[in-house]
Amino acid sequence: CVVGGFTHHINTSAVCLAGSFIRSDTEQLKEMFHMLVLFCLCCLSLIGVFGDSVSVMEGDSVTLNTDDTEIRENEDIMWTFGDENYLLAKIKKKKQIVSTYNSTDERFRDRLKLDDQTGSLTIMNTTTEHAGVYKLQIIRAKKSSKTFSVSVYARLPVPVISRNCSSSSSSHQNCSLVCSSVLNVEYQDKNTYSCVLNNPISNQTTH
Description:
Elements: H1 6-50, E1 52-57, E2 62-64, E3 76-81, E4 86-92, E5 97-100, E6 112-114, E7 121-123, E8 132-139, E9 144-153, E10 161-167, E11 173-179, E12 184-188, E13 192-199, E14 202-206
Parallel strand pairs: 1-9
Antiparallel strand pairs: 2-7, 3-4, 3-8, 4-5, 6-7, 8-9, 10-11, 12-13, 13-14
């Protein structure tokens, strides 16, 4: 900024300097906004990658739902498993093809059930080998996909509490309580102790 007088030059310089700060703040706000948008897009991308989390007890069945009430005439459904995208099942509605591929891999032999109306997939009599990522692809005018992360938990045994007591005097006795699973011993009222064996979806307790 160039002006005639020295005083004016100082004042104008201050104004120019303030203007540069304003422009700088505006640019920073724009950068922060762009970073926020990018962060939100990354979050949405991660949601698409990890999908739904499903937990099931070993031996039980688990159903992975397409959330559709009925497959449309022009839609194809395909289910795959794991990083290798092992083909589990598919539906070609227009050609009236409904297939499950459960005989080529012992993990899924006689364990797959495909709903020919909704496309939902059920894994029966699950074992820990069925834990992993399942991918659903719905092929229509616009292709879409959904993933399910399935966790299979072993059934818990009933824990056993054993005690070892020794007399420290004629009126006192010291006892140590040992839970066979060495997980968690909880003290309750009336001199009662509980041994708790648990995982995220079930628990077994001995008092």
